[in-house]
Amino acid sequence: MDNNIEQYSWFSKFFHWITFLILIVQIPLGFILVRMEFSDLRITIENLHVVAGITVFYVTLIRLIFKFFSQSPKLLPNAFVGQKLIAKLNHVALYVALLTITTSGILKKLFNGEKLNFFFFKLKINDNFDLADQFYTVHIVSNYTLIILISLHILAVLFHQIFLKENILKRMIK
Ligand code: HEM
Ligand code: HEM
């Protein structure tokens, strides 16, 4: 889409950094959770993990709906062939990974037969432990995919800064 916008809106910036802040706690929390023995503390940590995960799910949906109805700043001109395409693919893949990791976590819990609190309503469905296991595998795979995509995303920002001498971070901060 052609436009003259050079900055992300405050709305996009706010939800971008909220997602970042939640994820730097949420990913380690998941790894800690699966290594814990059953206890009250484990139940508390799992509840926190679920609340944070469902929050990321809603935030990602809100970001995508907002993106659909508004204009994003244009990507910077190509410094090398395909650069814009790579940036676009990274952003799309990040959104897909965020939706996959959250929905797989939600479906794992639901197919375990557990009642889930979606803040505005509660949901419980019939259990199916095979499906619960499969969605947990998706949860694990999408977690590693997300970690790789976030690493590439941060490396790209550093690449712009160091090699192309472009401060793209200001588009997401100022
Ligand atoms: C948890 C991790 C993160 C996720 C999931 C994430 C996700 C995203 C997504 C999906 C976009 C595209 C926004 C859109 O056009 O709709 C974006 C843009 C951006 N992100 Fe992140 N981000 C993360 C962390 C970071 C960090 C740590 C930095 C800084 C080092 C950063 C810097 C940026 C910048 C500068 C843009 C704008 C890129 C441009 O204008 O071409 N992000 N991010
Ligand atoms: C931002 C999104 C999320 C991230 C980054 C995330 C990350 C993780 C990670 C890293 C693990 C450990 C995986 C392993 O190595 O075995 C995990 C486990 C788990 N996650 Fe998530 N998760 C997210 C969202 C959710 C959501 C929305 C739910 C449910 C509503 C959920 C439920 C669970 C459950 C039940 C476990 C396993 C605990 C057990 O072994 O009993 N997660 N998550």
Throw out a few tags for this protein:
2 strands, mainly alpha, 174 residues, binds protoporphyrin IX containing FE, 71% helix, two-stranded antiparallel sheet
Question: Can you give me a brief rundown of this structure?
Answer:
Helices cover about 70% and strands about 0% of the residues. The protein is mostly helical.
Could you walk me through the main structural features you see in this protein, from its secondary elements to its overall organization?
The protein is mostly helical and 174 residues long. The protein has one domain. Helices cover 71% and strands 2% of the residues. It is built from 5 helices and 2 strands. A two-stranded antiparallel ribbon has the order 1-2. β1 and β2 form a beta hairpin. α2 crosses α3. The chain is elongated, with a radius of gyration of 18 Å. Bound molecules: protoporphyrin IX containing FE (2 copies).
SSE blueprint and pairings:
Elements: H1 10-34, H2 40-69, H3 83-111, E1 116-117, E2 122-123, H4 129-162, H5 169-173
Antiparallel strand pairs: 1-2
Bound molecules: protoporphyrin IX containing FE (HEM) (2 copies).
One protoporphyrin IX containing FE (HEM) binds next to helix 1, helix 3, helix 4 and helix 5.
